[in-house]
Specification:
With 187 residues, this protein is mainly α. It contains 10 helices and 2 strands; from the N terminus they run H-H-H-H-H-H-H-E-H-H-E-H.
């Protein structure tokens, strides 16, 4: 069975690739979790985040924006001492800021899912890439998403992070055409 080459050599990567990456994700809190994890990944490998994802879910109250928005200095200190997550003060602060921004969007009557999916017109973009060299690190859509998220008060949402988020959440199908998942995610 042929897969995208980036997921080979590490079982957790293969499982993630085969079951999650590129599958359209519409649920608000699941999208919030993914955005926080993509931000945590900045400067590191995604495998590092995957290995720590369950620890993140526990440490960050299963990514409840309502709970994260109320984190205080004591909770931040607890997170910074937790070896099960990436202990970066700026990334932890960004998660709290992002929870508050998420709640502000919600209070304005907009769903997080609707806000994010608008950048692909609510339909996954179907790419037809033949090699990893063809996959960009950012696009006009990720630039627009990043700009809108920043304007809405989110942090750690640069265009490259947004494009990785779009790939992971199925907003774009960047499975290579030779990958067994490509046609499964092509709608």
């Amino acid at each position: 069975m042929e897969r995208c080459p980036w997921c080979e050599g590490f079982e957790l990567y293969r499982v993630y690739h085969d079951t999650e990456w590129g599958v359209p994700l519409w649920e608000n809190q699941a999208l919030f979790e993914l955005l926080i994890l993509e931000g945590a990944q900045a400067g590191l490998s995604w495998s590092t985040v995957l290995k720590k994802r369950e620890n993140y879910r526990i440490a960050f109250d299963h990514f409840s924006p309502e709970k994260i928005a109320r984190y205080d200095d004591q909770k931040v200190a607890e997170l910074l001492a937790n070896p099960g997550i990436i202990r970066n003060r700026l990334k932890i602060a960004a998660a709290i800021t992002n929870a508050k921004a998420y709640l502000s969007l919600q209070d304005s009557g907009q769903t997080f899912s609707g806000f994010l999916w608008q950048f692909v017109n609510d339909t996954p973009i179907q790419n037809a890439r033949h090699s990893l060299n063809e996959v960009p690190s950012r696009t006009h859509a990720s630039d627009a998403m990043s700009k809108a998220l920043l304007k809405a008060g989110f942090k750690f949402v640069g265009s490259t992070i947004c494009y990785a988020f779009m790939q992971a959440s199925g907003m774009v199908n960047d499975h290579l055409v030779t990958c067994h998942r490509y046609s499964e995610e092509k709608h």
